Structure formats: structure tokens, C-alpha cells
Amino acid sequence: MRRNVMLAALRTGTRAAIVASALAVSGSAEAQSGNPLNFLDSLFTGTLSNGNSGSPAPAQAPSASGPQPWSGEDGASGHPLMTAAAIREAAGNFDGCVAAMWPDAARRNITQDNFQRFTAGLTPDLRIMDLLDAQPEFTKSIWDYLDILVNDNRLAKGREVLAKYKAQFDATERAYGVDRYIIAAIWGIESNYSTQIGDRSVLQSTATLACIGRRQAYFKDEFLSALEILNRGDLRPEQLRGSWAGAFGPTQFMPTAFKRFAVDADGDGRRDVVDNPADLIASTANNLKKDGWQSGQSWGYEVVLPQGFNFMLADRAKTMSFGQWEQLGLKRANGQPFPATPEKAYLLAPAGAQGPGFLMLQNFRVIMKYNPAEAYALAIGHFADRLRGAPPFVQAWPREERTLSRAERLELQQLLAERGFYRGTPDGRFGGQTREALRNFQASIGAPADGFATTDVLERLRSR
């Protein structure tokens, strides 16, 4: 599931954890979810070559010429385990590394026969090393991201899925209290309704990452968890296929997330989140419920911001009641009143002063546990609303703005550092520290301190 994906960082409590240096729409998303870099990450690399946690191109789609080989180069992270020499050395000891995990497998009640059967013939997929350290040259703007993920074709397919599996969605809503439209949206965005799941062996991918590269401890757990799934008989080896980071199934579960959240909804003795719609829908709902889903509540609301608004308040850590936000001049974009609820919300302004704002509630944070990128969570929430019959967002995005290249993002951070605003290590990835530095610079020159990186802001930094 979405978890991870894409992006590059890793969230350790739920879905997966690998972040990809790609989901950097509103910030660098080194996070994790259940979608560690499958097709969604490609949205941010500019290649659209594959697709927790997106759908323009199939996740890990095979090329006409066959799988791409490893580049043979050092990884971009600079980690000592990502040098070409270290990768080759670890690959040479791959068989020994896998065999050495038998005692850990035995402690998980995996039989020796099954361990030998499922690991026999495993070879490392070194191409994954290039993907693990991918450095996207360009990222997608949030409006391009939403255009790709929330489109008419996917909405039509989503409505078909909701009708076809109405009984399963009905049962799941009764059991877990999770909105069917959110589940359908995750299914649609993670795998384009099971058409872009990924074709890499989860065992091979997680074994590779458990023995080679910079995330070995994390992926050892994923590999052993994948063996547990097979040992228990929930899934067959041919079903356990997905992204290069190990996410599998229509809603992209990592093996460890499967262990925590998968349920046998139809009572057949197997938790099949790949080919069984009842198990798939219920397991996804169980995941959201255990992450804190609030039944009957929205994920958030589009809002209009007043002129001269203080964008320093657009911060995930600064929550207020709807009444307090109204006192500051915020109004719902559709003209309707805010709901009467004691729940507090934070303001997200992904395109700064030039685009729409959103007041985000607890359920938005839950979606971000599935995949820790705000752009992803916004796409899920909006897609769910559209499936429910709501119209597109009211306000326009600043589509005339050009997305900065990685070189320009790196330069912007370096200039902010030279001027005393940024204290991190410039890496071309925009996270909270970069946005805060950018806001402080904007405030110092009397511009709206919205933290939105544009070519104009870069030029003003260059001229200071």
C-alpha cells in the first residue's frame, strides 16, 4: 500500500519504509508507506516509467528489451554500503547471507522445508540498487500530480468497482467504520484497480535489499515476513509480486504491514489481499482503522485564504478549531459553513499564496500514515470525494509556474544557507526545514511567506 512509496524515507510504524527521493512535491518525502517506490515514484522522476502508494504507468513494468541491468555505479546517497565495490562484494555473498537468516526464520516458526523451498534459486536483483538511490532530476507539480492520479478514466473505473463489490464494501463499512470511497480511492491510486501492481518477486526484492545496500536491517524484517506469509499459506509465491521495494497487491501492502493488518474477511482460512476482493477491502479498512480513522468524518476542506494572510500559520503543528480559522478570515471554497465539530485542523497551502488552501483533519493524517506525502494524501482525499459525487476543487492552481529542476532546488538551498536561513545539508530535496528557511527569507523581503519555491524566489535569492 501506499506506504512508503515513493519516496524515500521510511515510516516505521505502518506500511513500508523506504522513501524515495521522488515524492518531493511539497517536500522531500523520505518516508514510507506501503508503496515504496512503485509506480508513484516515477511521477516525480519525470520518466513516468512505472507507478503504495499512481497509475500513469505500470509499477515496475517490464520493458520490451527485458529487465534493465544494474548501472554498476556508486549510489547517489554516498552511503558506504552503496558504493559499487560494496554492492559487488555483498552480491558475491548473497547465498551465504540468505542462508544465515535460517535461524531467524526458524524463530518465526517457518519450517526448514519451506525455508529451503522458497529461497532455493534466489539471486540478487542489483538493478534495485539504482532505484534505491534514485535522484530525480525533476519533480511533478502538485497540480500535475493530481491531474495524473484523479482523472475521468480512473473515476469511471472506481465507480464500477464500487458497484461490483457493493456487498463487500457494505460489510467492511459495518465492521470497520471506514468510508468505502477512501478505500476505493486507495485501490485506484495504488494500482489503477489491480492493473498496475508490479511484476517483481517480493522475495527476490526483499532478499536483495536485506543483503545488499543501506537498508539491510529494515528489509531483513520484510524478507522474513514475506517468508511467513508463504509459510502460513495466505498467498502463493506467484501472488507475491510487486514493487522493487516489496509492496504487493492492489493496495500495496509491505510484508510487515500485511502481518499487522491483513484479515480473512470471507472465512476461507487465507488472508488473500491480492485476488480476494473481500479480504483486500477489509484489510485496507483495518489498516486505516488501526491508524486512527474517524468514522463519519471528512479528511478536510478546501478553503479560500484572505488577502495578507500570515502563511507562517500554514504548518502541520499549528492546529486550530474551525471557529478560530474563521476568525482569521478563512472560508470554505464552496461557500458552505464549516461542520460543527470540536476537531481541530491544520492548514495546508501546497501552492502557497497562488493556489488553494486546505484545512486538514485527523483522517488526512491517517491517510498520510498510509503514505507520508501530503500530495498523495490530498490526491486520495480528493479522489474519494469525486467518487462520492463532489465536484473538482473550486480554486485554480498556478499552472504557469515551472517546477524547479533538481539543480535549481539544490542551488536554492545553497543560497538560503549562504544567507543564514537554512542550516541543513543542501541535497535538492525540499522538506520542512527547507520550507521554513524559505518562509523566513520571504518574510525578510516582504513577500508572502508561503514557503512555495518558484523561479521568482530563486531569482530574488540570486540577486541578494
How do you describe this structure in short?
This protein has 464 residues and is mainly alpha-helical. Helix content is 41%, strand content 5%. The strands form two sheets. It has a five-stranded antiparallel β-sheet with strand order 4-6-7-3-5. A two-stranded antiparallel sheet has the order 1-2.
How would the blueprint of this fold be written?
Layout: H1 84-92, H2 94-99, H3 102-107, H4 112-119, H5 127-132, H6 142-149, H7 152-164, H8 166-176, H9 180-191, E1 200-201, H10 202-211, H11 216-232, E2 241-242, H12 255-261, H13 277-290, E3 300-304, E4 319-320, H14 322-327, E5 331-332, E6 345-348, E7 357-360, H15 362-370, H16 374-388, H17 406-418, H18 432-444, H19 455-462
Antiparallel strand pairs: 1-2, 3-5, 3-7, 4-6, 6-7
Helix pairs in contact: 6-16, 7-9, 8-13, 9-16, 10-11, 11-12, 12-13, 15-16
Q: How would you describe what is shown here?
A:
Helix content is about 40%, strand content about 5%. With about 475 residues, the protein is mostly helical. The strands form two sheets. Strands 4-6-7-3-5 form a five-stranded antiparallel beta sheet. A hairpin with an 8-residue loop joins β6 and β7. α10 packs antiparallel against α11, α11 (about 215-230) packs across α12 and α15 (about 360-370) packs across α16. The longest helix is centred in the middle third of the chain and has 17 residues, at about 215-230. The relative contact order is 0.14. Residues about 1-65 have low confidence and may be disordered.
